[in-house]
Amino acid sequence: MPMLSSLKFVIAASFALVPSTVWAQGGLPEGNGKDLVAGICTGCHQTDMITRSSGYSREHWKELIGTMIDLSPDQATQSAITQYLAEKFPPNTQRAAKTVPGPVQVAFKEWQVPTLGQRARDPVEAPDGTIWWAGQFGNLIGHLDPASGAMKEYQLPPNAKPHTITLDAKGTPWYSGNMNGTIGKVDPATGKATEYKMPDPKAKDPHTLVFDQKGIL
Ligand code: HEC
């Protein structure tokens, strides 16, 4: 079970207090247990998962973190962490659902992509409100301006068959070349694609891309 063994690895790293990847630790209020939470809970995600959560009772925190990390071998740590979380992040209404009296009309607007049968997928919104999508079977990525409805498609190098797009800090679209084992980017001004081969030729099917805080993909 690879998932379990990687979990164990993270736990071991956390207890040694030298986590392999430490995400941003901002936003945690002072208090007993803060350093433990900052050290142990940032191995996989940032503290905003905690600060933006809907808050929980101590029992519920214990149950929730039990789905991510097994702290039961160290009761003192488990207790300090759950005490801190329950005290600083009790149940709140930040993410409470807003009920609207029904029935409600919801309007959908659709845009037909220019190349048919392209399997348009995985749209992402750029900071300027425009939308990028991957046209996997069409071997293209597309760009939509919802304000005007204008759409532009960019052909990719042969057989890239992009799966997903993510945007870098400058808004340049990067795609995973699902079929030819590449990661690529497209310059929207020139339409020129640059490809990077996966280092291991046996590595197939690159999927979902994420930039870290240093801009490493
Ligand atoms: C082994 C990796 C890992 C560790 C260590 C970890 N988490 Fe998580 N956590 C996750 C994953 C994966 C998610 C789900 C992320 C998503 O949905 O995008 C998550 C989600 C969350 C959420 C959001 C869930 C919700 O329902 O609100 C909270 C809160 C959270 N973690 C708190 C913690 C706390 C507190 C700790 C430290 C005790 C911790 N996490 C340690 C992997 C981890």
Question: Your description of this structure?
Answer:
With 217 residues, the protein is α+β, with helices and mostly antiparallel strands. It folds into two domains: 87 residues, no CATH class; 78 residues, Thrombin, subunit H (Beta Barrel). Helices cover 22% and strands 20% of the residues. It has a four-stranded antiparallel sheet with strand order 1-2-3-4, with no helix packed on it. Strand 3 and strand 4 form a beta hairpin. It is extended. The protein binds heme C. The site of heme C (HEC) has 15 residues, from helix 1, helix 3 and helix 5.
Ordered list of secondary-structure elements with their pairings:
Blueprint: H1 2-15, H2 34-40, H3 48-51, H4 58-65, H5 75-88, E1 120-125, E2 131-135, E3 140-145, E4 150-155, E5 162-167, E6 173-177, E7 182-186, E8 193-197
Antiparallel strand pairs: 1-2, 2-3, 3-4, 5-6, 6-7, 7-8
Bound compounds, each kind once, are: heme C
Q: What is the 3D shape?
A: extended
Number of domains: 2
Bin the strand percentage.
Answer: 15-25%
Radius of gyration: 22 Å
- Which structural category fits the helices and strands? alpha+beta
Write a concise synopsis of the structure shown.
Helix content is 22%, strand content 20%.
What are the salient characteristics of this protein?
8 strands, four-stranded antiparallel sheet, extended, 20% strand, binds heme C, 2 domains, 217 residues, alpha+beta, Thrombin, subunit H
